[in-house]
Amino acid sequence: MTGLAARALLAVVFWPSLFFFWFLGPFVFFLLSTTSSEVCARLETHGEFLAAANGTIPMLAVQNLIYAVPIVCLVLWNSLSPEPARARHIVTCIKLFVVAAAVGALWEYGSSLVCDGYGQAFFSPLWRMTSYLPIVCLIINVPLYVLVFSLGRTFSTREDGPGTEAS
Hints:
Elements: H1 2-33, H2 37-42, H3 46-54, H4 57-67, H5 69-80, H6 84-114, H7 133-156
Helix pairs in contact: 1-4, 1-5, 1-7, 3-6, 4-6, 5-6, 5-7, 6-7
């Protein structure tokens, strides 16, 4: 019974975090991390520009920690009922998550460096190439979302069938 209660508790954390953090969170963090035109207009020197971009780093770290909640739930579920095939899928999820987090952080950091209200080229044009990284994130995140969703569904469903319940 304790294992079932722990699995239920993990399900209560997993599903809301998956839907609110993974499906709605990117839009919220994107709005918070992009620099508005008012802030861009105040950035006149290379140092100010770099300081504003570096100011996004703590938020990116917090964002990735929040996004890791569903992955942590999968790891905890696997520790409750280990199965080698699922463990391999969880390792794949972790690898995809790390790559997606790194690409997403690079995109958000790069987009804050590209924002320039005066058209001045403070940084290498290579940072402008980060505008293509959302496509890479999408290519990585679609299989990650599908795999995490299917693993979560497997872990959060009851193992006993309707015929085995006690009356």
